[in-house]
Design brief:
Strand order of the largest sheet: 3-4-2-5-1-6-7-8
Helix content: 55-70%
Largest sheet: 8 strands, mixed
Shape: elongated
Structural class: alpha/beta
Number of helices: 11
Distance between the termini: 6 Å
Number of strands: 8
Strand content: 15-25%
């Protein structure tokens, strides 16, 4: 059922409250698609770095082959390290500022950036740019991109950013255009020695245009090609957070393709688990009453945690 629910979407975000099994579900989903001949890029944005642990492979910032199938299907993994991404982002910004600014301003610019590293939104902006890069890579070289996301609140903020940062870049470009027009008018009134546009001006405009286009592409992907798979447990707290997340996804225009209810207790394995199952049923009915039109998939409680490709494959078979 889950594979049918996500069919037609090339970018999938698997998310939910921390500890509900997002990495296991996103890996199982990727493996199930791989077995159907799809080329899958699985990207983890969770600082916990569970992807490599689950697959028992060393996974880093570059795609690592996790598995392949005889019919050409494959799954590659990437773990995005937020700390590394932020460091690279600000190093690149500093290098660009030093190219654009006079040497006397390099010191103040560096001090400003050191403060900006800890400013609200700076880390999210850097992570969003890396996610946009991964999305572009996935859409170019793969059939499907699956993001194994950080816990709900952080993911929701990231999904809202493309729209906001596209508008921000548009505003900066408009301000830059007005400044250039004003300079041209002033030059016509009070002529100075001819000063053609500098390389710094052109570089700044190129940077703003590039960022605007990247964020706009990601915004369009979120609205047109992406879907969200919500992972939860049949317990009061995860269910409440899941329903709230579903509401916010609808508000920002991201399609909720399916809900995976993970670790469902068996009803025929003793009175304790049977009672737990009855309590879980109440939560499942609560979910279905609110999200009646969204497909739900239930995964059973396993004896242990899945590990390695064999463990992921066993879970993937539950999704067919």
């Amino acid at each position: 059922m889950l594979l049918n629910a996500v069919a037609g979407h090339r970018v999938l975000f698997v998310g939910g409250k921390g500890g509900v099994g997002k990495t296991s579900v996103s890996s199982a989903l990727g493996h199930a698609l791989m077995r159907r001949g799809r080329r899958v890029l699985l990207v983890s944005t969770d600082p916990a770095h569970n992807l490599g642990h689950l697959w028992e492979r060393k996974v880093g910032d570059d795609p690592t082959r996790l598995a392949s199938s005889p019919d050409g299907g494959l799954i590659d993994g990437v773990e995005i390290d937020p700390k590394t991404v932020v460091e690279r982002h600000f190093d690149a910004v500093l290098l660009q500022m030093e190219r654009m600014l006079p040497e006397r301003l390099h010191g103040p610019a560096k001090r400003h950036l050191e403060g900006a590293r800890h400013a609200p939104g700076s880390h999210e902006s850097a992570m969003l740019e890396r996610i946009a890069e991964a999305t572009e890579l996935g859409l170019r070289d793969y059939d499907v991109v699956i993001f194994d996301t950080a816990p709900s609140g952080h993911t929701l903020r990231l999904l809202m950013l493309p729209e906001q940062l596209t508008d921000w870049a548009e505003t900066l470009l408009r301000s830059r255009a007005r400044s250039e027009q004003f300079s041209a008018v002033l030059e016509s009134i009070v002529p100075h020695k001819e000063q053609p546009p500098t390389d710094r001006d052109a570089a700044l405009r190129r940077t703003l245009i590039r960022r605007r286009e990247r964020f706009a592409r990601l915004r369009d992907v979120l609205h047109d090609d992406a879907a969200f798979v919500l992972v939860t447990l049949a317990e009061p707290m995860p269910m409440a957070e899941s329903l709230e997340l579903a509401l916010h996804l609808d508000e920002i225009g991201v399609t909720l393709a399916a809900v995976v209810i993970n670790r469902r207790s068996p009803g025929d394995a003793g009175e304790v688990l049977a009672e737990r199952r009855r309590l879980e049923d109440v939560q499942v009915e609560r979910l279905r009453a609110v999200l009646a039109s969204v497909p739900t998939v239930e995964l059973p409680l396993l004896r242990g945690h899945p590990s390695g490709e064999a463990g992921v494959d066993a879970l993937a078979q539950q999704l067919d």
